[in-house]
Amino acid sequence: MDLKALINKKLNTSSNPKNETEAVQIAMPFILKGAKRWTRNHLSYMDDFIMQGVEGALIAYKKYKGTEFEEKGYKYSSYAYMWIRAQQQEYAGKLWKYKNNTATIPDNWDGGDSYEFDEEDIDKKRAFERLDKDQRRVVELRTKGYTFEEISSECGYKNLHEARKDYMKALDHLTV
After folding, report:
1. pLDDT tens string 14-66
2. Helix pair angle (46-64, 76-99), 10° resolution
């Protein structure tokens, strides 16, 4: 099959194919979309993913006749999409598993600098930044170990209960 001819030829995707070539032509928009999605940052694998999509379209063509999908009036393109996606997804799993294989890395390798971070800390920081100025100050002082009485005199509250009330409001916002 000539891949360029298949890509460039426009075919009605609402029709059912009469042969394998037409089946691939009908499915080509889905094949290309899936290949682009899987190779977003790895364009060197585009041809491989296109071929996996073509295999999925051919499997779909062979299995489509006589299925409940055909009997219910579903178009071939809808049925083929499932097979194309499955083929490309399976290939991606095998490819990335192979590429990310760490079995050959020596046990004593330290890996260099660590880039680990806690995603919850990012969410907490964002929530903290959304607090108003007074609530941020109360939380900062409380985490430093200040008592509510010290916080109320430091921030100008009438009594320690107001400081505690603001602190509790701030905690509610931080946990949501």
Report:
1. 677 888 888 888 889 889 988 888 888 777 788 888 999 999 999 988 888 77
2. 140
Query: Hey, what long-range contacts does 150-159 have (CB within 8 A, 24 or more apart)?
Result: none
Whole-number pLDDT of residue 109 = 55
| 151 occurs within a structural domain | yes
Ordered DSSP codes for 12-68: -TTSPPSSHHHHHHHHHHHHHHHHHHHTTT-GGGHHHHHHHHHHHHHHHHHHHTTSH
Instruction: Give the range of the structural domain holding residue 88, as residue numbers without chain letter.
Output: 3-99
- Whole-number pLDDT of residue 79: 83
Using alpha carbons, select from 142, 7, 11, 168 the residue that is nearest to residue 75: 11
Cα 34 from Cα 72, distance rounded (Å): 26
Ramachandran angles phi, psi of 156, nearest 5°: 85, 25
- Measured in residues, the chain has a length of 176
Contact yes or no for 151/160 (Cβ under 8 A): yes
- pLDDT tens track for 85-110: 889 888 888 877 666 655 555 555 55
Considering its fold, how many domains does the chain have in total?
2
pLDDT in tens, 123-132: 777 788 888 8
Give the domain CATH number at 142.
1.10.10
